[in-house]
């Protein structure tokens, strides 16, 4: 009875092990491809939908392409869980998936944000420097206006002094001329008196 029971059991085990052995790839090296981003696909034990489903592969998964069956349009792959099976070739893409490229995109985004923050800090520093320069320029303009006002005041004072000196010189010249004129008149009058006195004698 044991022999009659073990024979069907061995047949069943061989039937289960045959697809599993068919999963082993003949070549460990293969081309890297990706499952399309907009779906998930079933992995079959052989190149066709009539083969047993081994599981599903999530969209965007990076897989290794082992071989292609052009007749059925299926390809043999090794997925990220190291399972070997066949999937519909229409769901295979040579371009990196969004899932695969997302970390790089995130890194690029972080670098762009960091560069943007650095640019903003540099811009803020430049704006502060511009404000400082504007403040210094305003101070210099105020100083220049003050110097110009002082210069105008000093110039007016010098002009007034020049006018006073000229007036003083003119006054002195007039006084000297007047004194000379008076002395000349006096000198002219003195001899006449003496002559008159001499005539009386």
Architecture per CATH nomenclature, i.e. the level-2 architecture of the largest domain? Roll
- In the CATH scheme, the class of the largest domain would be Mainly Beta
> What is the strand tally?
7
Mean pLDDT: 77
Q: What is the CATH superfamily classification of the largest domain?
A: SH3 Domains
**Adjacency order of strands in the biggest sheet:** 6-5-4-1-7
- The helix-strand sequence is HEEEEEEEH
Shape: rod-shaped
Structural class estimated from helices and strands: alpha+beta
Write the CATH fold name of the largest domain.
SH3 type barrels
Measured distance between first and last alpha carbons: 206 Å
Number of helices: 2
**Number of separate domains:** 2
Q: How does this structure look, described?
A:
The protein has 201 residues and is α+β, with helices and mostly antiparallel strands. The chain has 2 domains: 2-96, Roll (SH3 type barrels), CATH 2.30.30; 98-171. The chain contains 2 helices and 7 strands, in the order αβββββββα. The radius of gyration is 58 Å and the shape is rod-shaped.
Q: What topology emerges from the helices and strands here?
A:
Elements: H1 2-23, E1 31-35, E2 41-44, E3 53-57, E4 62-69, E5 74-78, E6 84-88, E7 92-93, H2 98-200
Antiparallel strand pairs: 1-4, 1-7, 2-3, 4-5, 5-6
Keywords summarizing the entry:
201 residues, alpha+beta, 2 domains, two-stranded antiparallel ribbon, transmembrane helix, signal, transmembrane, coiled coil, SH3-like_bac-type
């Amino acid at each position: 009875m044991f022999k009659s029971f073990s024979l069907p059991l061995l047949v069943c085990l061989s039937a289960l092990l045959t697809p599993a052995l068919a999963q082993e790839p003949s070549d460990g090296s293969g081309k890297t491809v990706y499952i399309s981003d907009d779906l998930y696909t079933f992995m079959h034990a052989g190149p066709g939908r009539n083969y047993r489903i081994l599981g599903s592969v999530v969209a965007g998964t990076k897989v290794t392409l082992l071989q292609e069956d052009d007749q059925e349009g299926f390809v043999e792959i090794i997925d990220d869980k190291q399972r070997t099976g066949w999937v519909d070739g229409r769901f295979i893409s040579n371009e990196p998936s969004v899932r695969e490229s997302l970390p790089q995109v995130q890194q690029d985004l972080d670098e762009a944000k960091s560069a943007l923050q650095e640019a903003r800090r540099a811009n803020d520093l430049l704006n502060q420097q511009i404000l400082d320069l504007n403040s210094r320029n305003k101070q210099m303009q105020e100083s220049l206006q003050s110097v110009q006002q002082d210069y105008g005041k000093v110039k007016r004072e010098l002009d007034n002094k020049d006018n006073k000196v000229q007036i003083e010189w003119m006054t002195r010249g007039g006084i000297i001329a007047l004194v000379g004129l008076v002395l000349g008149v006096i000198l002219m009058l003195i001899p006449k008196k003496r002559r008159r006195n001499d005539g009386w004698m």
